[in-house]
Specification:
387 residues, alpha/beta, Rossmann fold, seven-stranded mixed β-sheet, 40% helix
Amino acid sequence: MKKKILATIISAAFAASLLAGCAAAPAAPAAPAAEAEAPAAEAPAAEAEAPAETAAAGDLDFKIVVKSFQSSYWQAAVQGVNQAAEELGVKVECNGPNAESDIADQVNMLTNYINGAPSGIGLAACDQSACLDALQMAKDAGIPVVCFDSGCPDAPEGSVLSTIATDNYGAGATAADNLYAALKDTIASASAPVRIGEVNQESTSESITNRGLGFIDKFTELATADGKKVAVVGNEFYVNGAKDKGDEASADIIIEVAVPAQTTVELCATEASAIMNKSDVIGIFGSNQVAAEGILSADENLGKLGTEAGSTILAAGFDAGTVIKTAIKDGKMFGAVTQSPLAMGRTTVETLVKIANGETVSDIATDGYWYDNSNMDSADIAPNLYD
């Protein structure tokens, strides 16, 4: 029923925006996360319609729609957008909903921008399916769209000319590689089933779902290779999306997946607490900054996190921010995978300029790396660890 109500709200917002016309829009070495089976850079190139002349930089006006202004991750992306715009001499305007769960608000912003006929649009979609009608609208209006952070795999053909994103499935696998290596001996010596938690802030955006599934599938693969049986329980989307969901009754390892009702640190903390209170939990993964901070918030009352496998719960996070960085330095969080949001923002503007000048563009995979207390200050990692 909730899905039907949400769909009705989105449709109403979309219809209202059409009537509005041109209304203004409101302990391991660094491991590249780009190890997934099908990295974005391998996608076929898409060629924009070439203008008769190269566009003058000062005439270009781009609109950027991010997922939310709440987290420092998106602030870093906007910083990259503004840096590139200043260097290239183009105009940009950034907007986004208050929270990543405010899907209808984002669709309304997107359609309002389309009505304003900008030179191009950069989109980080909260819900890939909710934006499909708007993407068709942009295509019909001849407005090029570049997706970043999250792609829209079902977008109308030719509506999205480039997707700029971390190889999210591979990034989730990188977190599993490092967490499994730290827990391997504990798992091998366990006399009863053990539990690995996973907190995903939602189950709609491509980036979050791919990370969550990448972690599940890789952890399962590694455990199976060591002769262990794994079962995936909890949130239905992730259970059904796993390559092998296993059988809980016979499992040596249970991966329990939780998704809160809304994308807030507080609700992620509630879900994390429910998992971490179970006596068989030895590790937990938060697939983005909000989820990782939720795990840390939950531990303020529990005091179960640490870096000693077998005697504490090892937590792996994602992204950066002051809370996560401090927790890793203090030994509360085992480690995390970082993306490069600033690079994504910069690359989005650079790609839009290329499209405006009639150049051929393709999908671009940006780097992601595992970091912990042993390497977070290194030259390869530190520049990506925003506050």
